[in-house]
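Hey, resending since the last one bounced:
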Amino acid sequence: MTRIQTVACETGEARITWVTSRRTAPRAVLALGHGAGGGIEARDLQALAAALPALGTTVALVEQPWRVAGKKVAAAPKTLDAGWRGVWPALARPGLPVIAGGRSAGARVACRTGRELGAAAVLALAFPLHPPGRPESSRAAELTGSGLPTLVVQGGRDPFGRPAEFPVPLPAGHEISEVPDADHGFAVPKKSDTGQEEALELIVSAVTGWLERLRDRNPS
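The structure tokens again:
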């Protein structure tokens, strides 16, 4: 079941697409922001929205004001953070932990703001560790400084940072899960041993298992 909610922010009007289950009572909310080059139609976001509500996690797909306004170029990081902060109060549900998440630029926003906003954890999909071909321009500090339990799901051939490029060891509470042969959008080549549907299943499985571990550590 889906429902669309508009939220007025200081940076413009944002939009939340709520995806819930009619049969399963939610135990958490997972808020997912999109990247700088696309919206909530991204394959990883849609796969999670399709699978998680039936497993007890309501998914809130958040569209930043720049995207809602129809602009083609993403706003600056500070503006993205401000938009996320403006949406956050609308994500609260009585008695439910809210997990901050997103893909690419959305993952960076979640890492930068999750702790201050009171998120229970952070999900970073396709975290852009560095610009393609520029590993010296690392954004690792944003990820390692999240201050919250954090799961990174990363494509094995992501030009923005392959799993082997991430800091070792990651801080306590941080985990990384690899999707073999996947690129930044979690697309896999036809010649790969990992098919496209299998790649999406790996993402869903990694996130589902992580959410279960979070619940086991923090039973309600």
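The chain is about 30% helix and 25% strand.

Sorry for the duplicate.
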